[in-house]
Write a structure and sequence with these properties.
alpha+beta; Alpha-Beta Plaits; 3-stranded antiparallel β-sheet; two-stranded antiparallel sheet; 3 helices; globular
Amino acid sequence: MAQDVGGSSPLSHPLILRFLEKNKNVSMNRIVLIDESLCISCGACIEICPKKIFFIDNKTQKCNVSEEEKCDKIKGCEKICPTEAIKIKD
């Protein structure tokens, strides 16, 4: 797990820390957290994302993200995900 020196990192937010502790299979991106163990590859995030940064990885058949720095942080993907596999860091 990422170290937070001085408590200034977004990773130090209690909700993020709780999510990471609970979900060990999370892909560690800087902005978009995806718990692959919860992802059912439904594609809802792909459809709702205005920035089109989500895709289904051919190898894992799970949701993944490209160019996450383009994330608008509106959290539509987080809200629409039926299994709550996606979390967006503020």
